[in-house]
Amino acid sequence: MTLPVGNQKLLNDTTPKIKQVRNISEKKRIKKSFSYIQDPGHGWLSVSHEDIIATGVKSLISPYSYMNSTRVFLEEDRDMSIFLDAAKILGWDVELKSSTVDKTSIRGYAVYNQEWIDNPFIVGRIVYLLNGIEATVSEKTTKGWNIKASSGQIYRLPRLNPLARILPSFGKEQNRVG
Question: Does residue 175 belong to any structural domain of this protein?
Fold first, then answer.
């Protein structure tokens, strides 16, 4: 896959970092399989937070991609190509498993925010409700996450999509949903 000129510059800016990891990868090829999910309007590559970190592209991902607490859904027009090119530089053997659906929940996830990669959503993490109230992730349950505000009020967040309802910090770029 060839990147458009603007995307190639972005990847070139991170190439030294990627090449450091490449020396390790040349000794042992890594086989990776990723889901490529398409609906009638768009497509996304589903990638773990760990793979975003391993490829060194976390700062290159645009706000047109989405994420939940474990995965990043890279939009197909730009971010997917950047990730796949970085994976190729690292020597990964990548297999894409494509699926087409009528409707996907991906657009309802939080917009990609590197801060969630750097400081994951875990128990004990300070987060902010969309109205600016500071809270602490207090518990993971079978149905979702409980976060406790400084007032003592408990808020429940869904298991699969907690990031769409909170912010990693307040006063910075806001999450958008849909």
Answer: no
Rounded-to-integer distance, Cα 147 and Cα 56, Å: 31
136 and 84 housed in the same domain: no
pLDDT-derived band at 61 (thresholds 50, 70, 90) equals very high
Cβ atoms of residues 93 and 31 within 8 Å: yes
Rounded to the nearest 5°, which phi and psi values hold at 174?
A: -85, 150
Residue 27: domain span: 5-116
Task: For 91-145, write each residue's pLDDT tens digit.
Answer: 999 999 999 999 999 999 999 999 998 888 889 999 998 888 899 999 999 888 9
Task: Establish if 85 belongs to a structural domain.
Answer: yes
- DSSP string spanning 127-178? EEETTS-EEEEEEE-SSEEEEEETTS-EEEEESS-GGGGEESSSSSSPP-B-
Strands 66-67 and 126-129: unpaired
Asked whether residue 163 carries a pLDDT value surpassing 70, the answer given is yes
